[in-house]
Amino acid sequence: MHLYHLRVRQNLPLTLQQAWDFFSNPNNLAEITPAWLNFSVTSSLPEKMHPGMIVTYQVRPWGSLALNWVTEITHVHAPHFFVDEQRDGPYRFWHHQHHFREVNGGVEMTDVVHYALPFGPLGRLAHYFSVETRLREIFKFRKECLNKIFNSATSAF
């Protein structure tokens, strides 16, 4: 299994608690996901995440191809980090850490994603030709969206 790694940082002009309140509410995920993914949550969601919480959703990253995805929130240490892991879905492995820390002028948010694709060499080709680019586009969209929501002029990607 070939494991890929993606790390993204962004500064937001928020308090640590404001950042946590926004990101720990799973209902906000759709708002910061690009429309081209055709993202839809298929399970009911509470207002705050908790360890063991299961979220099911569907994405359509390539037109009409629908992919079901099940994630579990495995770790929560408010207001500093949480982890979501795929339990079923398009990846062979998906582990996504969300870290928040106070910095001068706000909060630094760091995403650390480890992931693997199925299908061996074909998965590596898919990563090279499409998956890596798509993941970066998703995080770029999220950065831009969060800058609009929180009127931030200082962030890094």
Named CATH architecture = 2-Layer Sandwich
- Count up the helices: 2
Task: Quickly name the level 1 CATH class.
Answer: Alpha Beta
Which overall shape is indicated by the principal axes computed on the Cα atoms?
A: globular
- In the residues, how many domains can be counted? 1
If strands are numbered along the chain, what order do they take across the biggest sheet?
A: 1-7-6-5-4-3-2
Q: Which structural class matches the secondary elements?
A: alpha+beta
Terminal residue distance: 28 Å
Low-confidence stretches: 153-157
Order of helices and strands: EHEEEEEEH
Q: Write down the Rg.
A: 15 Å
Beta-strand percentage? 35-45%
Task: Give the CATH H-level superfamily.
Answer: START domain
The major pleated sheet works out as: 7 strands, antiparallel
Instruction: Quote the average pLDDT.
Output: 93
Number of strands: 7
Keywords:
157 residues; alpha+beta; Alpha-D-Glucose-1,6-Bisphosphate, Chain A, domain 4; seven-stranded antiparallel sheet; 25% helix; globular
Could you please describe the fold and organization of this structure?
The structure is a single chain. This protein is of the alpha+beta class and 157 residues long. The protein has a single domain (4-150), classed as Alpha-D-Glucose-1,6-Bisphosphate, Chain A, domain 4 (2-Layer Sandwich). The chain has helices spanning 16-23, 120-150, and strands at 4-12, 40-41, 54-62, 65-77, 81-88, 93-103, 106-116. The chain has a seven-stranded antiparallel sheet with strand order 1-7-6-5-4-3-2. The longest helix is centred in the last third of the chain and has 31 residues, at 120-150. It is globular and about 45 Å long. The model is unreliable at 153-157 (pLDDT under 50).
